[in-house]
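Handout for the seminar on molecular recognition.
Each group receives one record of this type.
Step one: identify the two inputs.
Step two: read the structure output and locate the region that could contact methylmalonyl-coenzyme A.
Step three: write two sentences on what you found, then compare them with the reference statements printed after the record.
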Amino acid sequence: MRPWRDHLPDPAAYVPDREGTLLRAWARRVAAAPGRPLWHEGGRWWSAGEFAEATGRAAGRYRAAGLAPGDRVLWSTATSVDALVAHVGALRAGLVVVPANTAYGARELSHIVEDVRPAAAVLERDEQREWVRQVAHAPHVVAGPGLDLPDGDPGPLDTAGPGDPALVCYTSGTTGAPKGAVLTHGNLLANSEALRVAWRWTADDRLVHCLPLFHAHGLAVAAYGTLLVGGSAVLLPEFDPAAVVDAARRQQASLFFGVPTMYHRLVTSGAAADLRGLRLCVSGSAPLRADLHRAASRALGSGVLERFGMTETLMNTSNPLDGERRPGTVGFPLPGVEVTLDPSGEILVRGPNVFAGYWERPGADAGAFRAAADGGGRWFATGDLGADDDGYLVLRGRARELIISGGFNVYPTEVEDVLARHPAVAEVAVTGTPDDEWGEVVTAWVVCEGPVPDVGELRAFCRDELAPFKQPRLVRRVDVLPRNALGKVIRSELR
Ligand code: MCA
């Protein structure tokens, strides 16, 4: 694979700050230019100084509510400035933020609450607030994104060090329930810093931000990157091709970050051709099919830059800003990151971007990390299979049977466990079926004695247990499920 130095015109000029944190780097930006625009929402700009003040106030509210550094804050919000104030305010107070999808239902949220035992929860929807109040380890403080709590003295801000936890992000394996990946303040800085230099992201850049904030893409790439470089972003509460074009034009944006489903919709709606003024369009969170890559690049007038990241590692590789952006590949390691393939082809990652481990799960850590033969720390085994295409990393599928739909991860076992409880279903297996728009859609393969429930019936059955994006979109009847000698279902044969 090409070395990360190939991302930089002058590798010697890249001096990473391993002692610092994202918050302290950002505080320096604000102090130097408090009047610069930062977030645009609802027809007005928030300046950097205004946002800094609001986050300090939020930190004071958490402290007044009795929260202390290290306490967790469950945070499940739509994309908005309020949500970012509540988020950055928590980090500034030394609290550990636990992002969760706003589509999650009671079961999905209560698992996280029981596992991470948050002291506070900042939740978008009324019903989410009701649900978490009923969990055994219910947080003491439950608020909406506006953080409507009494003010208090924030005390010292931004004191967390690079090794202190900043986020616990929930993600699943093939077995068991979702586990929390602990990302440190140093991880957040290393990731943003690598993107800043690789993509020549500067204070003059302006991003159209229409991604959810509760995943690494919208949070660690889009929002933290904007803060680190001292740039600005137009926040859109949801993705809509016409709104993206309108925001890009009116606010003279230079950047767009999206998932492949968004590029598909930009191309099919014709909106992509109206985004030719953008300097850089980045795709991530799911593989961008080479034909969609070409169609989008043609319409946008510049090559879409595809990159590869994971919740546990934030961003690992990227196609180059200068030079060939090769469709069907995710480029080569970002500055500071090492990537290698083990003999089975699994992608291993090492670097200052790699998380500290899973929240209270030493067993999961033992399976995820491998001691490095060169004595230089440990490799994180990503579970993704890769190949080296003349210096560029190609994703070759997954060692684990994850489905990616519209950029959201879906774990087959979780969906199977719910569907198996349907009275008409004798046995079930879940796989991803290729789909032009969504990348993959969830398909349920069912064995039934009597009539097969249709897709509407199965979706209704799981409504209270599974977020909509995990519910099956296709149902196929089979007489038997293919199994190996140990009786384990071979999902790869169900296609
Ligand atoms: C919404 N629906 C979905 C999805 N999203 N179904 C399957 N897969 C999905 N991803 C459901 C809705 O709930 C609705 O269900 C129905 O589909 C139609 O909704 P529609 O309005 O068409 O969808 P949308 O609301 O426009 O959402 C599409 C979207 C969204 C904008 C592409 O899925 C999205 O924001 N994706 C981004 C995901 C992301 O940020 N991933 C980053 C994680 P019903 O009809 O039942 O109501 S990965 C990451 O961070 C890593 C580290 C990385 O490298 O980036």
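Reference statements: The chain has two domains: 4-389, 403-493. The pocket of methylmalonyl-coenzyme A is lined by residues 211-212, 215-218, 239, 259, 261-262, 284-285, 309-311, 405-408, 438, 468-469 (CB under 6 Å).
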